[in-house]
């Protein structure tokens, strides 16, 4: 049984992860049931802030547990697909269960590891509960070794109760034909043949949207980069980023696109001069391998897991906080796109669905053993 995300939260990457896992487990011959918090009081929420946020919390953490306990009683293994719901592990102590931790950036902010990002009291309390839930989990899987290192450090878990399982592509990304590209780009308001840098990422602080703008400003300040545009795929821009674009006079060159269909995103990857992905922190970094699978060169951060696990030889690595040097590196490498494309194709093939499913089946087996060991220990003690 997969525990999916609360639909009104619109966490697209988490929803895609759940759909991917459900589909691939079924292909492998397993019966899969998906359960997620129902929308009850959340229907009354007019916004995601203030009272609306708390009404959604009631749906997710007050009303949902009873339904979860009932469904788990007839399930072989429960898989909580997002660490945000790790609070529910306390209801699953007698049931084999796995929690996937995608990243712990919010938790690291809450414990003070990133002093530049402030977390409110309620946020600190919520992240503390998530860490406690992970600490009590039967088995925790992580998208990368970088995230696993954070889990081991912050949750005091043994290595035996954790594992790293890299994500697979959540859509069959591949290059788009020239005719299809032209049609899709036209519908998105992008002229055929235009040169643009692509960025894909939400407005979360660690996605570094200000860094994207600063690097792009440095690119367009140089003769080789003056003809470039910037396409940002994001649900929105923060006020800070919008002000930065205006202050730098970049409005005519920047286009923001929201909630695209995968085929439209595939066309953008296939058309872009390069993907710019200068995240400060990532649990995995799906856009890296999505772009590579479409033949789009990638410039990403010289930090784990982007540099150490995900990008491979198909990416060029930059300091996400040094915009001038990053721009120089990008312009130096743009003439070598064909080599980067070929290396990217090879790297993207490392992240197969078959490998991902095999990793989760091993994690499910480990969770079952953990419960069985708990059952057997009292008997051993009596002997």
Structure described in brief:
It contains 14 helices and twelve strands. With 383 residues, it is α/β, with parallel strands linked by helices.
List the SSEs and their pairings.
Layout: E1 2-3, H1 12-27, E2 34-35, H2 51-72, E3 78-80, E4 97-101, H3 105-110, H4 121-136, E5 139-142, H5 145-155, E6 162-164, H6 178-187, E7 196-200, H7 209-220, E8 229-233, H8 239-247, E9 254-257, H9 262-271, E10 274-277, H10 286-293, E11 298-301, H11 306-310, E12 315-318, H12 323-333, H13 337-348, H14 353-382
Parallel strand pairs: 1-2, 1-3, 3-4, 4-5, 5-6, 7-8, 7-10, 8-9, 10-11, 11-12
Descriptive report:
- With about 375 residues, this protein is of the alpha/beta class.
- The protein is about 45% helix and about 10% strand.
- The chain folds into 2 domains: about 1-170 and about 355-375, Rossmann fold (3-Layer(aba) Sandwich), CATH 3.40.50.2000; about 180-350, Rossmann fold (3-Layer(aba) Sandwich), CATH 3.40.50.
- Strand 5, helix 5 (about 145-155) and strand 6 form a beta-alpha-beta unit.
- Helix 10 packs across helix 13 (about 335-350).
- The two termini are about 35 Å apart.
- The relative contact order is 0.11.
